[in-house]
Design brief:
By secondary structure, this protein is α+β, with helices and mostly antiparallel strands. The protein folds into two domains: about 110 residues, Transposase IS200-like (Alpha-Beta Plaits); about 80 residues. It is built from four helices and six strands, in the order E-E-E-H-E-E-H-E-H-H. The strands form two sheets. The chain has a four-stranded antiparallel β-sheet with strand order 4-5-3-6, covered by helices on one side. Helix 1 packs across helix 2 and helix 3 packs antiparallel against helix 4. The chain is rod-shaped.
Length: about 200
């Protein structure tokens, strides 16, 4: 089952498989150095709300699967991870500056990244389902509006028939009868015109 993450106005599923290696691909990440790199990466990811789904540290490269929030770009995340781990490594292991890494460059400049998400079949099904759902939603007002028009005409005819009956029985109340014949359909129209508009825009 797909696990979606949520922010205040976003739900997302950004998963990336990232591979990078030390400069010159020296087999240096073993023992205490490997443990230090792992602990530092976990700390930095927790700090930036990045979830580590998988991590595998080899002597000459690192595999990681990360879930990264939309507010962070891959380039900024990688710059932060590589930069801060290099600084901490050289502070904790000063001998690395002398051999084999002269200067302050522990990681190679590049990295490999690929996105992991819904497969193409699922995406196509979802898009098709949304298209069909939207089509049904647009067709719904077209079925409702004729019913509203018929109901409005029936109500108008009923109001006029009632007014004519009252006028026949009470010919002295002409103004009252005309008021009923005009106001009743008027209020009905106002009410159902609003319903019709709501049906169209919903």
């Amino acid at each position: 089952m797909i696990k979606w993450k949520k922010l205040s106005h976003i739900i997302y599923q950004y998963k990336y498989h990232i591979v990078w290696c030390p400069k010159y691909r020296y087999k240096i990440m073993k023992g205490v150095v490997a443990e230090f790199v792992e602990q530092t990466l976990r700390m930095l990811c927790e700090w930036k709300d990045i979830e580590i789904l998988e991590m595998n540290i080899k002597e000459d490269h690192i595999h990681r699967i990360l879930s990264i929030p939309p507010r962070l770009s891959i380039s900024s995340v990688m710059g932060m991870l590589k930069g801060k781990t290099a600084i901490k490594l050289f502070k904790s292991f000063p001998t690395l500056k002398k051999k084999p890494y002269w200067g302050n460059h522990f990681w190679s400049r590049g990295y490999c990244v690929s996105s992991i998400g819904l497969d193409e079949t699922k995406i196509r099904k979802y898009v098709k389902y949304q298209e069909e759902k939207e089509k049904k939603r647009r067709e719904q007002p077209a079925r409702i509006l004729p019913l509203l028009e018929a109901l409005k005409a029936t109500c108008l005819a009923g109001a006029l028939f009632t007014a004519s009956g009252i006028l026949f029985m009470y010919p002295d109340h002409l103004l009252s009868v005309l008021g009923i014949g005009i106001l009743v359909p008027f209020f009905f129209f106002k009410k159902y015109e609003g319903k019709k508009l709501e049906a169209v825009v919903r």
